[in-house]
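User: Hi! I have a protein structure encoded as tokens and I'd like to know what sequence might fold into it. I'm fairly new to this, so please keep things simple.
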């Protein structure tokens, strides 16, 4: 971590106190911190009572074999029942669960809880007909349409862990995830809408299935396809149309309760090596923490709030704060299929106005983009319904935070900057909207029930005013249980740096008041528009191109996306200078291998890479070049002239 960055951060004089009426009626008050501190497990016990259990647990936490935790031991429940059935049983069947807004204007649908229940039951019956049983894995590769949520809940209902793969990922990425978790069924759509045009998904599934067939014939038995755009799709004997199979099924389905530790889903995320990690979340603890945090951090009032989380369901934020948390809390949510700029740059604000959204949860990269587009765009819409704003995914710069609060929130609306990860399953560090005097740029302190700290290299807690590594010191209910099929990597990645502590991979600082400032990843993971990408994964993609001999990838600062991917590539001698389109060719290749989000912003063809004597690439120096800084200390390089070659190449290229 850079010392100047550290010193500059955390000197923030602005404070935003909670609005008086919010504070007076807040779901979580300052007492919650005390209750949780007095008896953390009793606190979590009470949070688990938000859910409906078929069999109660007899032990809150079994931590006898760390870091393998068991929460709510002996308890049994069904996640889909908790998200849907119980609300209908309680008389809220006619309440809207989702205001779905398709990308084409006017293409909308309101789905009530009773409709959601019927569709989930039909889908569960359909999956049963396809042979899906408790424990079987199902991959979901979909656009943002109601059937995606239905598919997830149908899997949960059957106890069949789902793995949702972001629709922007490539066929290769989908295939590797399907193979890693052994999915028998893939649920997909012909396509979705992107900026006014249908964008196909099914061809990528066909390609992925061909790949899985080559490696593990017969693994994927069925592909269930929703017709969304009406595009032509090729048909194979594995394919079944959703409207043929699901629509005719009975609208009732008796669900079974599963053990609290029954796997709910696997979500793949980038790690420090090229191979994505399958983060495993289980049922009882995960749903408890998703429901508790969604209710507490967003101060949710289910009777009156209209909540909108803009994340794609293909990311963990979509899982915890678009599906599981909100539905467990009987929320009315907006679900939007499209992009912020189609058909115009005020689309989001129009949706806020039309549906009178009260709580908005989005990412700094989107906020910075809106800032760039100008205040006059949101000013055209009535945003007065908003009473709470949330941010997630990367550090939010104080200026973006203040802009969000002022321009979108009208100056009175609290902003909760929520820190968490795919691995943590739920928000861990955040202001409480009715309690905290929030500082722009700081995620403040751990929420009640969570033990977070900043430690130094030795694992000792740092004093206020100092920086170090962000850790969690006590287990929490929505913690990842392991990496799918790889207990060893789970222990090594998260639990072996310091005894008894979860290492999050982020650097952080405690300011003079002890409030936390998350600085970003300290490992080889980049954060581009709030999406985690591993440098190694992109390097491997580049090296798999026949013209490439070696590649080094760094994340460099970018005003809009937080970080951007910058690649240095050495070509094979047989490739000569690579040809006039080499940069485009390589960018497209990365998009094909991983997905468009991983496309390098910049690719520099270089003769050499800076390496230490032991052969480790010195990314720090490459970052200096990419960010146009004077190149730092080169004394540990095996050949110190290399940087001159690279810098010279860079300046002649720009
Ligand atoms: C970063 C997304 C600063 C962090 C929920 C973390 C943040 C990674 C914040 C997890 C925040 C997330 N402030 N940094 N409020 N929220 N991050 O797994 O580096 O996609 O480790 O989960 O995003 O990304 P993931």
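Assistant: Happy to help. Inverse folding works backwards from shape to sequence: for each of the 654 positions I chose a residue that suits the local structure. Here it is:
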């Amino acid at each position: 971590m850079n010392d100047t960055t550290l010193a500059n951060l955390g000197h923030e004089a602005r404070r935003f106190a909670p609005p008086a009426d919010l504070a007076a009626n807040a779901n979580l008050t300052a007492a919650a911190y005390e209750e949780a501190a007095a008896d953390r497990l009793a606190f979590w016990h009470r949070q688990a009572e938000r859910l409906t259990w078929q069999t109660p647990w007899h032990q809150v936490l079994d931590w006898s074999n760390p870091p393998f935790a068991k929460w709510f031991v002996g308890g049994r429940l069904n996640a889909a029942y908790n998200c849907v059935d119980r609300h209908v049983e309680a008389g809220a069947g006619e309440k809207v669960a989702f205001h779905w807004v398709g990308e084409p204007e006017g293409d909308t649908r309101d789905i009530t809880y009773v409709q959601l229940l019927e569709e989930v039951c039909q889908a569960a019956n359909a999956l049963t007909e396809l042979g899906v049983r408790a424990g079987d894995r199902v991959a979901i590769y979909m656009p943002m349409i109601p059937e995606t949520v239905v598919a997830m809940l149908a899997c949960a209902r059957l106890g069949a862990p789902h793995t949702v793969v972001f629709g922007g990922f490539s066929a290769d990425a989908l295939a590797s995830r399907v193979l890693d978790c052994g999915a028998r069924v893939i649920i997909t759509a012909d396509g979705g809408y992107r900026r006014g045009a249908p964008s196909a998904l099914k061809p990528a599934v066909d390609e992925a299935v061909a790949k899985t067939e080559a490696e593990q014939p017969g693994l994927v038995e069925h592909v269930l396809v929703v017709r969304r755009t009406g595009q032509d799709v090729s048909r194979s004997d594995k394919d079944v149309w959703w409207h043929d199979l699901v629509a005719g099924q009975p609208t009732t389905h008796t669900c079974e309760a599963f053990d609290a530790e029954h796997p709910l889903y696997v979500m793949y995320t980038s790690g420090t090596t090229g191979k994505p990690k399958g983060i495993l979340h289980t049922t009882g603890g995960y749903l408890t923490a998703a429901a508790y945090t969604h209710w507490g951090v967003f101060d949710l009032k289910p009777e009156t709030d209209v909540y909108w989380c803009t994340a794609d369901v293909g990311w963990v934020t979509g899982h915890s704060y678009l599906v599981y948390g909100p539905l467990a809390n009987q929320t009315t949510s907006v679900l939007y299929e499209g992009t912020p700029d189609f058909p115009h740059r005020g689309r989001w604000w129009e949706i806020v106005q039309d549906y009178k959204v009260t709580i908005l949860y989005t990412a700094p990269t989107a906020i910075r983009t809106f800032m760039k587009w100008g205040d006059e765009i949101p000013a055209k819409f009535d945003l007065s319904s908003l009473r709470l704003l949330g941010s997630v995914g990367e550090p939010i710069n104080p200026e973006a935070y203040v802009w969000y609060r002022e321009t979108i929130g009208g100056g009175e609306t609290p902003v909760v900057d929520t820190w968490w990860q795919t691995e943590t399953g739920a928000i861990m560090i955040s202001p409480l909207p009715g309690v905290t005097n929030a500082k722009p740029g700081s995620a403040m302190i751990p929420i009640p029930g969570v033990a977070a700290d900043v430690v130094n290299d030795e694992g000792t807690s740092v004093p206020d005013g100092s920086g170090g590594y962000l850790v969690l010191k006590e287990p929490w209910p929505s913690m990842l249980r392991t990496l799918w099929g790889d207990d060893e990597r789970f222990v090594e990645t998260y639990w072996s740096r310091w005894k008894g502590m979860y290492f999050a991979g982020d650097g952080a600082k405690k300011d003079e008041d002890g409030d936390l400032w998350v600085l970003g990843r300290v490992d080889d993971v980049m954060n581009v528009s709030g999406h985690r990408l591993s440098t190694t994964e992109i390097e491997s993609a580049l090296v798999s191109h026949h013209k490439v001999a070696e590649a080094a990838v760094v994340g460099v600062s970018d005003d809009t996306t937080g970080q951007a991917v910058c690649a240095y590539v050495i070509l094979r001698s047989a490739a000569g200078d690579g040809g006039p389109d080499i940069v485009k060719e390589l960018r497209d290749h990365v998009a094909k291998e991983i997905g468009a989000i991983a496309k390098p912003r910049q690719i520099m063809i270089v003769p050499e890479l800076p390496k230490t004597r032991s052969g480790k690439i010195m990314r720090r120096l490459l970052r200096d070049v990419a960010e146009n800084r004077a190149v730092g200390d080169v004394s540990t390089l095996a050949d110190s002239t290399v940087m001159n070659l690279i810098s010279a190449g860079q300046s002649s290229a720009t």
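A useful reference point when you look it over: The chain is about 30% helix and 25% strand. Feel free to ask if any position seems puzzling.
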